[in-house]
Amino acid sequence: MASELPARERNVLVVINEPVNGRDLRAAIGDDSVEARVHLVAPAFEPRIGRGRAAAAAQRRLRRCLAELGRVGVGATGAVGDPEALKAIEDSLREFPADEIVIASNPGRLGRRLGENFPERAVDRFRLPVAHLALGGPAAA
Fold first, then answer.
1. At 134, is the secondary structure helix, strand, or coil?
2. Do 92 and 81 touch, CB atoms closer than 8 A?
3. Would 3 be classed as within a structural domain?
4. How many CB atoms lie within 10 A of CB 106?
5. Is residue 139 part of a domain?
6. Is the pTM of this model over 0.70?
7. Hey, what's the torsion of the CAs at 12, 116, 54, 135, to 10 degrees?
8. pLDDT score of 138
9. Residue 33 within any structural domain of the chain
10. Is residue 47 part of a domain?
């Protein structure tokens, strides 16, 4: 994921729909990830467990991902976001002027959790480059 901006001016918004290890996330952000500004948003989407528990699960996912990035030398900020991922991105962009978006999700759950063609819909809506970091293998049913 090459960027024309100098590394220090590069802002990457990462949507963490699943827990992700630091090495994979660092690789998705790129070689200059230590110099980039990174902000994570964890949508509080867990319809089967209720809204309060979904926010708590998103907070745990966020803390884990921030710790993982710290272990590989990438400093980041983060927040729990709206259950609807496009709204979570929109809200995040008000506070964090991203140059690009990375969506970290299991490929089998991408459509189920975020809706069909989510990366394309994010590109259309926000007019930013969007990359999908595919986590793990196919999702369990």
1. strand
2. yes
3. no
4. 18
5. no
6. yes
7. -60
8. 38
9. yes
10. yes
Assess contact for 101 and 54: CB atoms under 8 A: no
pLDDT for the residue numbered 7? 43
Provide Rg for the chain, Cα atoms: 14
- How many whole angstroms separate alpha carbon 45 and alpha carbon 76? 22
User: Would strands 100-105 and 76-81 be described as parallel, antiparallel, or unpaired?
Assistant: unpaired
Number of domains in the chain: 1
Q: Is the dihedral of CA 130, 35, 137, 108 positive or negative?
A: negative
Query: What is the rounded CA–CA span in Å between residue 100 and residue 137?
Result: 25
Domain that residue 88 falls in: 13-134
The letter for the amino acid at 76 is A
DSSP secondary structure string, 9-64? G-EEEEEESS---HHHHHHHH-TTTTTSEEEEEEE---TTT-HHHHHHHHHHHHHH
Which residue has tokens 């803390």? 63
Reduced to 3 states, what is the DSSP secondary structure of residue 105? Answer: strand
In the chain, which stretches have pLDDT less than 50?
Answer: 5-8, 137-141
CATH number for the domain spanning 52: value is 3.40.50.620
Closest CA to 114 of 87, 93, 141: 87
